[in-house]
Amino acid sequence: MDGQLLGFVGVGRMGGPMSSRLLDAGYSLCVFDTNAEAVKPPAARGAQVAASPADVASKASVVFMSLPTPTIVQEVALGERGVVHGTQVRTLIDLSTTGPGVAAMVARGLTERNITLVDSPVSGGVAGAKAGTLAVMVSCPKPAFAEVEPILKNLGRLFYTGEKPGLAQTAKLANNLLAAAALVVSSEVLAMGVKAGLDPKVLIDIINAGSGRNSATQDKFPRSILTGTFDFGFATALSYKDVRLCIDEAESLGVPMVVGSAVRQMLAVTNARFGPDSDFTCIARVVEEWAGVKIRG
Question: What's the pTM?
Fold first, then answer.
């Protein structure tokens, strides 16, 4: 690696480990985050610290964003001090989950300044970000994909979804709805089993050996629910946001989501009961309260 300088805006829970992997791969970084603490680890490894997203984009031709909400993505990309005002940037890689509408809008705004959006949401959580095993969904023009593919490969496995901005977002929303749905329904059957007298670990083992196994029973329950820690690493507010975006997109396409709507309501309840900063595995705590039983034994 020749030490190419990359920009990175948003080096927090997910952006931090992803930017660290780029440093590991030999790239140089210029970073920005509104949280001064977040920039300290990359700065300690030699990354430049910029004063704004526009400042990052005036130093690097390829800029990454990893941000929590669609509103923040719009502001960082197109706002007064946004990436769009950078003098060097030619490619903006958005690793955030915004929904296809925002991706299309950001792409249009960037095109006016001859900047290409690479719509590239990721799945796999903090653990996947650290290990470089994320599912990296990508939609952008094919020449842009050829340019960024060697860089993105450092983050995980790439899935090129097509040229249309927002296609990768649609794939990400579909994935995150399924992840939340598995957590909701698994919480319900575990509560039933425990209240009937089953050991929750035994029931999890049975499910994982049978046809009911899913991402929640295989990972989230053993790691964060049966232990009572509820620390999987994904905020309730973010899961709620992703599921809302998915349901909205389905409605705009005329696709019914009856079960998806119920999952959205469960996340709304969890968000209200335990707060937006709670871990989304707290869905199980809602079911525990309603059922009058502790799933974790």
Answer: 0.93
- Provide the 8-state DSSP code for 134: E
Judge if 106 and 34 occupy the same domain. yes
Q: Closest Cα partner for 1 from 20, 19, 28?
A: 28
110 and 235 belong to one structural domain:
no
**Structural domain of residue 187, as residue ranges?**
170-291
Q: Model confidence over 73-85: pLDDT tens digits? A: 999 999 999 999 9
The catalytically annotated residue of 172, 195, 220, 294 is 172
Query: Mean of the pLDDT values across residues 141-156?
Result: 98
If one counts the domains in the chain, the total is 2
Place of tokens 């309840």: 269
Beta bridge partners of 119: 94, 139
| pLDDT single digits (tens) 197-221 | 999 999 999 999 999 999 999 999 9
CATH code of the domain covering residue 276? 1.10.1040.10
Q: Residue 21: is it exposed, middle or buried by C-beta count within 10 angstroms (0-12/13-18/19+)?
A: middle
Active-site residue flag, 172: yes
Same domain, yes or no: 94 and 216: no
